[in-house]
C-alpha cells in the first residue's frame, strides 16, 4: 500500500496505460479520479475498479479544455478532500503524413491534447496540491519525445515539449513539495498503436526493435508511474524516466 490516503487524478484513464494505472493506484490505497473524453469507457473503467472494492470516480473531461480540467480537479477535491497525485496521461497519435501535408487542424488537435493538456492539468492541480501539503505529478511523454520518427511531427514535438514543461514545473514547484516527472514509454500494447496492427511487416518491426525484443504491456508502465507517484521516488524530480524496453539504444 504505497499510496494510502492519497487522491490521484488520471487523465486518459479510461483505457490503455491510464486504465492499468487506475487499477494499480487503487490497489495501493489511492482514491482514483479518472478524467477521459470517452464517457462510456471511462464509466466502465471506474465501475470495474469499484467492483474490486476500491474507490474510483469518473468525470467526463476533454484534456484540451481548460474548463473541463478545472472541473476535474475541483471534482476530485470535493469528492475526496484533497489532491496529491496527477497522472497527466491523455494523449493521441497523429495522422501519418509528412509535415508539409499535415493539416494545421491536425497539428492543433494533437498539440492541444498532448501538450496543452499537460499544461492545463498542472495549472489546475498545483493550487490544490499546495493546499494538500505537496504532491507528485507524472506527465506522459514518449520515447518519441526524445528520438524522431517519420511522419510524426506533432506527436514528436508535443512529447518533447512535455519533457521541457516537466523540467520547468519541477523547478517552479519543488520548494512547494511537488515533484514533477515525465514517463517516456516505448511501444505499448494499447489502442493508440491499433493502426499499425494490420500491417504485419511494420508491426513486427515496431514491436521488436528494442533490447527486450517485445512490445510492452500497460501494466509495466503503470508500475513505473507508481514508483514516481510514491514516496519511494522522494528525491526524483525533473526526470524523464524511459520505460521503453531499450528502444532508445536499439
Ligand atoms: N501505447 C504506446 O505505445 C505509447 C508510447 C508512448 C507514449 N504513449 C502515451 O501514453 C498515453 C496513454 O496512451 P495509451 O497508449 O494508453 O493509449 P490509449 O489510446 O489506450 O489511451 C489514451 C486515452 O486517452 C483518452 N483521450 C484521448 N483524447 C483525450 C482528450 N482530449 N481528453 C481526455 N482523454 C482523452 C482516450 O479516450 C484513452 O482513454 C498517451 O499520452 C500516449 O501518447 C503511448
TrEMBL record:
Molecular function, one GO term: oxidoreductase activity
Pfam (any one): adh_short_C2
UniProt cross-references to CDD domains, sorted A to Z: SDR_c
Native source species: Metabacillus indicus (Bacillus indicus)
Sorted UniProt keywords: Oxidoreductase
Protein name: Short-chain dehydrogenase
Family statement drawn from the similarity comment of this UniProt entry: Belongs to the short-chain dehydrogenases/reductases (SDR) family.
Entry's Gene Ontology BP terms: bile acid metabolic process
NCBIfam families listed in its UniProt record: PRK07231.1
Amino acid at each position: 500500500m504505497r499510496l494510502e490516503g492519497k487522491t490521484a487524478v488520471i487523465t486518459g484513464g479510461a483505457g490503455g496505460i491510464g486504465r492499468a494505472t487506475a487499477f494499480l493506484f487503487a490497489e495501493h490505497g489511492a482514491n482514483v479520479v479518472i478524467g477521459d473524453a470517452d464517457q462510456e469507457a471511462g464509466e466502465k473503467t471506474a465501475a470495474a475498479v469499484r467492483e474490486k472494492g476500491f474507490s474510483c470516480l469518473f468525470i467526463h473531461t476533454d484534456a484540451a479544455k481548460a474548463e473541463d480540467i478545472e472541473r476535474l480537479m475541483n471534482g476530485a477535491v470535493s469528492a475526496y478532500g484533497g489532491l496529491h497525485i496527477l497522472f497527466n496521461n491523455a494523449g493521441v497519435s497523429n495522422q501519418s503524413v509528412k509535415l508539409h501535408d499535415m493539416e494545421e487542424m491536425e497539428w492543433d488537435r494533437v498539440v492541444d491534447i498532448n501538450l496543452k493538456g499537460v499544461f492545463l492539468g498542472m495549472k489546475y492541480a498545483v493550487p490544490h496540491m499546495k493546499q494538500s501539503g505537496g504532491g507528485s505529478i507524472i506527465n506522459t511523454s514518449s520515447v518519441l519525445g526524445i528520438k524522431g520518427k517519420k511522419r510524426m511531427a506533432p506527436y514528436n514535438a508535443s512529447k518533447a515539449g512535455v519533457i521541457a514543461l516537466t523540467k520547468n514545473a519541477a523547478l517552479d514547484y519543488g520548494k512547494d513539495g511537488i515533484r514533477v516527472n515525465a514517463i517516456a514509454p516505448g511501444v505499448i500494447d494499447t489502442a493508440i498503436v491499433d493502426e499499425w496492427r494490420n500491417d504485419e511487416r511494420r508491426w513486427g518491426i515496431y514491436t521488436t526493435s528494442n533490447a527486450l525484443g517485445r512490445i510492452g504491456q500497460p501494466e509495466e508502465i503503470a508500475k513505473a508511474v507508481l514508483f514516481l507517484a510514491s514516496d519511494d521516488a522522494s528525491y526524483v524530480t525533473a526526470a524523464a524516466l524511459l520505460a521503453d524496453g531499450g528502444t532508445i539504444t536499439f
